[in-house]
């Protein structure tokens, strides 16, 4: 009802015409209004265009110009004012989702060339009662609280969120070595059962270990679908065991109008990508500039061909020409290989990979996925230089967990092995001081490298992160360090921390070669 009312309101109240070039821009965080506007566009044949703040002013201006956008739905009055006052555009209608005084003032200022309306005015224009209908939404206290309330049967997410949920489970799980071993045995045995097609969570031991976790996840999850990046094998195995359900990884991109491959339900292999969607053909293409040749390295750039492939970018002939190779295959920009089961296994983005001085190309997303399993890490960026033989890491820590771990385990001096005075004065240290402390940095670096050894990073995937920078700066879509899908905005993040990386290399190795390095 809300979707139909909002779409009809666009036509009736806003006087917006329907044709194949009618665009509606949507900006703001995920919300009820966002979803209503999106589905209303689909129902009334409008093209909805996300206006992410992370694109920056230049990117937003490009979209406004290219689409000749006339209608925008904004979450807040601040976003609406930004669009109206800071850009040259064809806008003639701006809809604000949240009513406040600033929005009312903005509405009174613009009554001719650009009309400003509130969301409920558009929605209420076609409701049967004719009354204005506002929508009240309360921000969830936490993701898990939201999940428990919704009680989903299919849970769709991204790896970073799943990593955090798993981390919360382990934070609350008893630290007893015996219980930890029994938990791991249960995870292993349940995954072995699932390889035989047995998905169950009814055993007595299973209920002891996972009943509370399943309840926190709503108690009804029967399938997890993950997209946007590869999941770490340990995370896949955990969710399969804890929820007693399949975990499906999907590989896709906008240019494929959705998914290109996915792990079939019942396939218990741990590689990402999986089987191809039926309408696609796929090939791996040589990447000579990276020294990758399919016949020799068994890796290459993934290329797709099929009816789901886009015909090109909207009004952008230059980039459309670059999208396809000489034989008409769509180039994804991703490096992949075929696994033993014949599934497509994504390695990393071409543009994400970097080369160290010894000539080895490193796939940072894979390595970051391993390091992100640490309870100490909220977000990690691994970077390197072709002039140096080792990589470095930028870490935004979980400060509560970091303080707890330092206090419990202590931090040893690298030379003498004696405990510095830091553990007795943790409470007096600010987060900034904690990040700058050389002993804390060493502690974090050793924890990361211990985790890497346990996960057996080797060969092409190995990174010997011998220096680390701890930052208090939040990684978020708002400051551009994360994408709207919560992946690292690598190009922006590398540029942002460029001077930090240089300083880490100038400082040299915190862990000298041969001493506790991965």
UniProtKB/TrEMBL annotation:
<keyword id="KW-0436">Ligase</keyword>
<dbReference type="Pfam" id="PF00501">
    <property type="entry name" value="AMP-binding"/>
</dbReference>
<keyword id="KW-0276">Fatty acid metabolism</keyword>
<dbReference type="GO" id="GO:0005783">
    <property type="term" value="C:endoplasmic reticulum"/>
</dbReference>
<dbReference type="InterPro" id="IPR042099">
    <property type="entry name" value="ANL_N_sf"/>
</dbReference>
<protein>
    <recommendedName>
        <fullName>long-chain-fatty-acid--CoA ligase</fullName>
        <ecNumber>6.2.1.3</ecNumber>
    </recommendedName>
</protein>
<dbReference type="GO" id="GO:0004467">
    <property type="term" value="F:long-chain fatty acid-CoA ligase activity"/>
</dbReference>
<dbReference type="GO" id="GO:0016020">
    <property type="term" value="C:membrane"/>
</dbReference>
<keyword id="KW-0443">Lipid metabolism</keyword>
<feature type="domain" description="AMP-dependent synthetase/ligase">
    <location>
        <begin position="3"/>
        <end position="108"/>
    </location>
</feature>
<dbReference type="GO" id="GO:0005524">
    <property type="term" value="F:ATP binding"/>
</dbReference>
<dbReference type="InterPro" id="IPR000873">
    <property type="entry name" value="AMP-dep_synth/lig_dom"/>
</dbReference>
<feature type="domain" description="AMP-dependent synthetase/ligase">
    <location>
        <begin position="125"/>
        <end position="314"/>
    </location>
</feature>
């Amino acid at each position: 009802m809300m979707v139909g009312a909002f779409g009809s309101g666009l036509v009736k109240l806003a006087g917006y015409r329907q044709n194949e070039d009618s665009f509606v821009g949507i900006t703001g965080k995920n919300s009820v209004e966002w979803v209503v506007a999106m589905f209303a566009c689909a129902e009334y044949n409008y093209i909805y265009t996300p206006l992410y703040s992370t694109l920056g002013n230049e990117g937003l201006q490009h979209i406004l110009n290219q689409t000749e956008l006339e209608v925008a739905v904004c979450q807040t009055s601040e976003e609406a004012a930004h669009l109206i006052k800071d850009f040259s555009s064809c806008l003639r209608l701006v809809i604000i989702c949240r009513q406040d005084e600033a929005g009312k003032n903005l509405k009174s200022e613009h009554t001719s060339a650009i009309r400003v309306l509130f969301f409920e005015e558009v929605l209420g224009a076609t409701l049967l009662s004719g009354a204005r209908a506002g929508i009240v939404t309360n921000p969830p206290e936490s993701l898990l609280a939201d999940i428990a309330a919704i009680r989903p049967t299919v849970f769709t997410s991204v790896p970073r969120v799943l990593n955090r949920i798993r981390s919360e489970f382990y934070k609350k799980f008893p630290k007893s070595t015996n219980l930890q071993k029994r938990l791991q045995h249960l995870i292993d045995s349940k995954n072995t059962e699932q390889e035989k097609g047995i998905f169950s969570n009814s055993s007595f031991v299973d209920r002891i270990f996972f009943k509370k976790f399943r309840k926190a996840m709503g108690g009804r999850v029967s399938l997890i679908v993950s997209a946007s990046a590869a999941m770490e094998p340990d995370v896949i195995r955990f969710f399969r065991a804890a929820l007693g359900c399949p975990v499906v990884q999907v590989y896709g991109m906008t240019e494929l109008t959705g998914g290109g491959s996915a792990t079939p339900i019942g396939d218990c292999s741990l590689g990402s990508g999986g089987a191809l969607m039926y309408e696609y053909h796929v090939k791996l293409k040589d990447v000579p500039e990276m020294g990758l040749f399919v016949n020799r390295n068994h890796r290459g750039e993934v290329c797709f061909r099929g009816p789901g492939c886009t015909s090109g970018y909207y009004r952008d002939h230059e980039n459309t020409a670059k999208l396809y190779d000489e034989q008409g295959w769509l180039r994804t920009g991703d490096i992949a290989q075929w696994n033993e089961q014949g599934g497509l296994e994504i390695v990393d983005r071409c543009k994400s990979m970097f080369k160290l001085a010894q000539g080895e190309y490193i796939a940072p997303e894979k390595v970051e996925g391993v390091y992100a399993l640490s309870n100490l890490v909220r977000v990690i960026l691994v970077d390197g230089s072709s002039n140096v033989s080792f990589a470095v890491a930028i870490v935004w820590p979980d400060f509560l967990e970091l303080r707890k771990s330092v206090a419990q385990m202590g931090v040893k001096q690298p030379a003498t092995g004696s405990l510095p005075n830091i553990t007795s004065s943790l409470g007096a240290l600010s987060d900034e001081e904690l990040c700058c402390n050389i002993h804390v940095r060493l502690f974090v670096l050793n924890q990361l490298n211990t985790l890497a050894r346990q996960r057996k990073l080797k060969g092409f995937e190995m990174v010997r992160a011998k220096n680390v920078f701890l930052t208090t700066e939040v990684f978020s879509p708002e400051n551009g360090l994360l994408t709207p899908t919560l992946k690292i905005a690598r190009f922006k993040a590398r540029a942002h921390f460029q001077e930090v990386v240089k300083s880490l290399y100038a400082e040299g190795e915190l862990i000298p070669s041969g001493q506790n390095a991965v």
